[in-house]
Amino acid sequence: MAPEAVLSHLHRADGSATYTHNGYCIIGAVNGPIEVLRRDEMPEEATVEVNVRPAVGVGSPKERHLETLLHNTLRSVILTRSIPRTLVQITLQVRSLPDEDSSTGVSPSLTLLPHLLHTALLALLSASIPLSTTLTAVLIALPSTNTPTASTQLLSPTAIELLRAKSIRSAHVFAFSGEGKMLLNESDGTFSYEEWEEAAEAAAEVCCKEDGGVGLAEGMEVDGREGENLDDWLRSVVRTKVDHEQRWKSAK
Amino acid sequence: MAATTAAAHQQPVHGPALTFPRPIFAAVAPHPFLQAHLSASQPSKAPLRANSRTAHEFRRVGINTGSLTHCNGSAVVRLGNTSAVCGVRAEILHEEHVQGTADFAPSTGNEAEEDLEREREREEIESLRVLVPNVELSTGSTPQHIPGNAPSSFAQTLITRVRSLLLSTSLVRLSDLRILYTPPSNPDDPDAEPEPQLKGYWVLYIDIFYISIDGNAFDAAWIAILAALKNSVIPHAFWDEDLETILCSDDPSEAHPLTLRGLPVPSTFAVFEGKRDWNESGEDEEADWVLSDPDAFEESVCRESVCVVVDCTGGNKGTKDGILKRLEKSGGGVVDRDVMKGLVKRAVDRWQEVETATNAKP
Amino acid sequence: MAANTDRRRINAPSGGTSAPVFAKPVKEPGYLQLLRPNRNRGPNELRKTFLQTGVVPSASGSAYLEVPTTTTTSHSSLIPPTSSLKIAASIQGPKPLPRSAPFSPTLVLTTTVKFAPFATRHRRGYIRDSAERDLGVHLETALRGVIIGERWPKSGLEVVITILEGDEDTWWGDSKAEGGSGSGWGLLNVLAGCITVASAAIMDAGIDCVDMVAGGVAAMTRDGQKILDPCPAEHQDIVAACAVGFLASRDEITELWLKGEVGAEPDELIESATHAAMGSVSVLREVLLENIETKTKVASEGSKRRLEDLEVRD
After folding, report:
1. Count of domains observed in chain A
2. Which residues of chain C does A59 touch, with a Cβ-Cβ cutoff of 8 Å?
3. Model-level pTM?
4. Subcellular location, in the record's words (chain B) (predicted)?
5. What ipTM was assigned to the predicted interfaces of this complex?
6. Under CATH, domain C39-70+79-291 is a member of which superfamily?
7. Is the Cβ pair B160, A64 closer than 8 Å?
8. Chain centroid to CA A209: how far?
9. Each residue of A79-110: b (16+ CB within 10 Å) or e?
10. pLDDT tens per residue across span B172-228
11. Is B137 an 8 Å CB contact of chain C?
């Protein structure tokens, strides 16, 4: 299934998005460019602040780690130099996780990371923050070679799929920019360079292969067309939003 | 440096030159400072960084183990001006204090199920929380971390990475941490093999104190942990029926060292993105450098960083061998698949160096 | 035992853990006394001190002090008989006070003392406890009298002390029998070490001082004998002890911490403590000379290096 996204539904934030995919639901809000604390002010660029709030309880070092990853990645996407001495504040609230998330055998940070990245980007688009490029991310899991499902990469697997394929030998999260540059990679487990390279290639196809790319699952349907990649999905989300905002024009 | 003479040759009529002493140049314009170093072209030798290392050169590892009295294992690790102390302390978690169910299933010893076994063990270690790593940076080790504040975001990121690597590599075996008790065989039924009972676990507190930080805090922390765990000795613990508690033997010959799974070694790289319009002469000139083992100055200038964790125990070093334990990369788009291949190779070479250093007897 | 959860650190099992209990001292009463360490140096003989400056290059000044144990570690038991003393000090500043701070005509001194969790026989927490705060206050008193604060108005100086290993209050076998320690003899040793190492770090930072302050400890036994630099684990009969921060060339004391039943003549004990401090002074002097030598060497090399300076053009 393609991810679902609702944009600009929070009225008090400059930009917002709710993103739902495979049982993960995250609300993102962006405020910016706003005034920055003197302590954090940078003379030549904008300060980016990311807050991740877990579904249950208060934050832990795990959330701080995710924030650091998101901060590093988004800072390279946002045109921080065109809005210097300001603050772009991104808040991501995890609303729900699939029930099986904690028992998949893959680090919960990895399964959550692509969804957080997508939510943050959609919220940034909704807030019209100047960006140098877009970004798409995907999780790839390689099951243990001893199991019957050997040598099949699981592309953007659901928590149940991970649970069924147990045990997972390695899990990889890749994020690519709109131009196909690898922006982020987090890989964990035991794997060879060749396995990683294959995973990276598959991820690039899912994220941003120009045409003839392999889509996510078969059911993925965007604007009635099948076999689209995540980049096209992102475009369609934005297109829908722009169409919606332009409706005063068409409703003559 | 060589840049002076080279630049002077190319542009002899370009207004009065501004010359700064090195530290002032580095403070005023850190980015051009590093670029000037790296692009200083002297045909005879590779360009050097500001710390007079080549781009591929790591700092030498210095390890000193077993110097702390009250630890089961300890190590002091130096990477140039970065130094960290790691102390491992074992305490006992009694069975009645274990949260949730501690179902103890003896290993089946089945080779095919090894992956599954490790998986189960990893989950058990994680849910029991028998490995407790923590870092302390507020020791005056850097001007950024002043004591009196809660652990910074940097410290929390660092410890999350350390903990998740400890868990995902299954470095410590749960069998080393279990405290078992085999009751004497039943006199009525001498043939029945008595079942071993679980009485508790050893909990390892792994604390890292930085004395000084000059970049690459993660590698220093991890190598310190490796060396300290290798150095650790766990006393023999047994269930005393009379006192109904766990007692330990203080006899060093009965104590056992930890048997670690492999030797995963991290290598951190920083990507320096040169300004392409700095030198307009050549367009396809190499403008990005991937610097091994960055120091604090380089970390402040670089945005993209990569960490490669490899474990070549067993002698496998090829691209088909499952030697990679972790890849982390964020902050930019310079490192692609081709560059990563080179970095993995550099990490494998580094593994050899660290392996030699950890095995050397003091 | 159950520690409150700290959401910024990795937490231990919520059920709590306990330090291992060794069987032999519990089961065989005679065995315990075999492990007791004894002082094998004269009453006026000090332990060897190792002191080094410049261990933290990014700090303006730093030093590391180590007083190794004199008792040979036995190879027949895993229980360490005595502790050694290992302290690192780092100086940050002088630097401008934050805007929010009120005006100060003199240097504002902040001292932080923290034990590492593995510094003592009982695991320490991550948050500073009262003993650590106490040490910080005593150290500040010792240092404030030496630094010429008027030369840095509106500035702050941060002295950060990390104790990697600290002296114990009593021998562990005794403290268990009495149901806990609390004499605090060990803290005096730690304070004296802190004063000496902080003094070396301040010297390394080049902060103007009226003299070098050095720490020293003396103790009095039940029979009235004075012992210099006591290692509390080696003595059973200490009744009073005293730590001083001593300025040798001015013959002044900036800090005095006296504990226990001194009797009518506390002066003698204080006098002995200053004698112990003289030992630290001689170590400090050596380190100071070494420090100046290396600094002048670096300075002369630096002037040579200026010829190779990089050039910026506009």
Report:
1. 1
2. 7
3. 0.91
4. Cytoplasm; Nucleus, Nucleolus
5. 0.89
6. GHMP Kinase, N-terminal domain (3.30.230.70)
7. yes
8. 17
9. ebeebeebbbbbbbbbeebbebbeebbbbbbb
10. 999 899 999 888 877 777 677 778 888 999 999 999 999 999 999 999 999 999 999
11. no
